[in-house]
Amino acid sequence: MPTTTKRTEPDACSLLDTDHRNVKKLFKAYEELTKSKAASSPQKKRDLANEICMELTVHAQIEEEIFYPGLREAIKESDLLDEAEVEHASAKDLIAQIQEATDIDDKFDAKVTVLGEYIDHHVKEERTQIFVKARAARGLDLVAMREQLEARKEELMAELTGAAA
Ligand SMILES: [Fe+2]
Ligand SMILES: [Fe+2]
């Protein structure tokens, strides 16, 4: 029997990383649309961009409300988390620009592309640095935190999709 079963138990980091992978797929789908000349593509782009913005908004919020503060208490150096929060703020600026845009033109595509690149960079830092530190931290119950993140995510998704309906 392996002695490291605890490692493989789904935790807060694995939930967040599932979000990362899902949004990456949405960015890929958007990229495919930019190559399409179909007349329906502006509406599809708008819908996909809205979905990307919603997913990222909820993801950033659960990290800021639950994951980052929990981590601040458990790890010594806070520089990584300061940087992550600054990156969130910049991503939110771009998200707001995308949500407010009325023309689905080349500039709009560029905004979505840059947001995708930006998120790629941010996710890489979370994966290679922040998650590693979180999993190594003592006294941080990441498995319990996963449940908190999941519950808050559901709540926020319901709020956002309810407001849009
Ligand atoms: Fe983040
Ligand atoms: Fe993240």
Topology:
Elements: H1 5-8, H2 12-34, H3 41-74, H4 79-100, H5 106-136, H6 142-164
The structure holds fe (ii) ion (2 copies).
One fe (ii) ion (FE2) is lined by residues 16, 20, 59, 63, 123, 126.
What do you see in this structure?
With 165 residues, this protein is an all-alpha fold. The chain has a single domain, classed as Four Helix Bundle (Hemerythrin (Met), subunit A) (Up-down Bundle). It contains six helices and no strands. The protein has helices at residues 5-8, 12-34, 41-74, 79-100, 106-136, 142-164. Helix 2 (12-34) runs antiparallel to helix 3 and helix 3 runs antiparallel to helix 6. The longest helix is centred in the middle third of the chain and has 34 residues, at 41-74.
CATH superfamily: nmb1532 protein domain like
**Distinct ligands, ions and cofactors found in the model:** fe (ii) ion
By CATH reckoning, the class would read: Mainly Alpha
Strand content: under 5%
Number of domains: 1
Helix and strand succession? HHHHHH
Radius of gyration: 17 Å
| Major sheet summary line | none
Q: Say what oligomer this is.
A: single chain
Helix content: over 70%
CATH architecture annotation: Up-down Bundle
| Average pLDDT score | 93
- The number of distinct β-strands equals 0
Q: What structural category characterises the helix and strand content?
A: mainly alpha
Question: Spans with pLDDT under 50 lasting ≥5 residues?
Answer: none
At the fold tier of CATH, the topology name is Four Helix Bundle (Hemerythrin (Met), subunit A)
End-to-end C-alpha gap: 50 Å
Q: What is the number of helical segments per DSSP (H or I, 4+ residues)?
A: 6
